[in-house]
């Protein structure tokens, strides 16, 4: 039996009916005790009845108050054992799989909605710089705001130790509003995030329920349905988004930005973000390495319909590893690394934000593993094209019922992070073989790239060498290629090599470009190749 705790506690002084009600609840709790405890408790009740008969009215009233307090204490013990309920939001069970497991050892319940104080901060094109607070418990705030019932809504849910007006969330709203006319809502749950990690991991259940309640208010008061809603959550916020999706069925899409690992990885679907939480769930993994020694806080476990693993999903280029192996308690890790976790774990936010305005730079390839991707075995795209990781996602969608499809890609070390992948093959000309390095730079209608290494090996005239390169700029249609080779060794014979031909295949649309050359050059001398005439 699930017991309900009222959000407001009334005075019990002089109210015999409440005393009797609490006594009944206590008896229900008492009946669940073991046989020996039941007998002892029954004796206690009988004894208390005899004492009541012998007491004066004033003493009897005081004793009833004490008995009520005892009943409430037992009631609260039962609540902690089985869960807790709140009038607006429903019940939050305890026990398996929420507490007391290997993955979630802390026996904690979520805080009350009042303590967490979930807020909804609205940004629109009419107010892109200053939010308007709207509320599910006060629909008049929606009437008084710029909320547009004819537009879709994007909810941004922050993570641990953060708040709803944190700069990245506000900036993300501004970027989205730049490309789409939507209601962008930052969900602020700082009252439940700035505490011990194990407690915050439970509080997200209430945050998700509050979000679902707000969506229900929009539907019941304004006929605004969840089919117009998109949830984006980072870290703990990703699992909060999942909780909202569980309680508000029908949400079209949820994006998880490096969903946090501790207390969630390898747990049942009802605990964490899962494909059943929306019609389409996509996830970006950026900090999935083992907790020790490199302290990765993101899930490596696939938990969406499509799971993206940029740079393998563990250590991002440009981020140094953080070794704090002397801290063994998970709450201590989080508190002690508030500043450290802002690189790998936060890269998911950076990539997603940049993808809003530059989606083509995050083309991702279906691949079984990072090992296969490193071996350059994953360049082919489906007939409808490869998806782009991030906001736009592209036309590709997995077939119905297909879960946890994995995609891999590379990013740059610093902003801008997007890269454009090419398959490059170089056929050499010359008269002598020499050990050295081949480099190629691309020039196009939108700019040019730096020199990218194709190979470092024995260079043999007549042989073709190939590699996949990730260009740091979108150069548009390639109009010419510059070839450079060197071996960094003094050679009195001053050998010459040239690129007889260079063929490029652009990954995003598999467009081919072919360039030809008719000269050989010494090392460190650029050779320019132009489109072949035949």
Automatic annotation (TrEMBL):
Q: Among the entry's GO cellular component annotations, what is one?
A: zymogen granule membrane
In this protein, the active site sits at: 235, 258, 345
Q: What is its EC number?
A: 3.1.1.3
Superkingdom of source: Eukaryota
Give, as in the UniProt entry, the pathway in which the protein acts. Answer: Glycolipid metabolism; Lipid metabolism; Glycerolipid metabolism; triacylglycerol degradation
Bilayer disposition of the protein? Peripheral membrane protein
Q: Which UniProt keywords apply?
A: Calcium, Cell projection, Cytoplasmic vesicle, Disulfide bond, Glycoprotein, Hydrolase, Lipid degradation, Lipid metabolism, Membrane, Metal-binding, Secreted
- Where are the membrane-spanning stretches? none
Q: Which SUPFAM superfamilies match?
A: alpha/beta-Hydrolases (SSF53474), Lipase/lipooxygenase domain (PLAT/LH2 domain) (SSF49723)
Disulfide bond positions = 85-91, 173-184, 319-343, 367-378, 381-386, 516-532
Subcellular localization(s) per the UniProt record: Cell projection, Neuron projection; Secreted; Zymogen granule membrane
Which terms in the Gene Ontology molecular function aspect does this entry carry? galactolipase activity; lipoprotein lipase activity; metal ion binding
Coiled coil (residue ranges):
none
Q: Where is the PLAT domain?
A: 420-534
> What family does this chain come from, according to its entry?
Belongs to the AB hydrolase superfamily. Lipase family.
The protein depicted here goes by the name: Triacylglycerol lipase
Q: Which organism is it from?
A: Chiloscyllium punctatum (Brownbanded bambooshark)
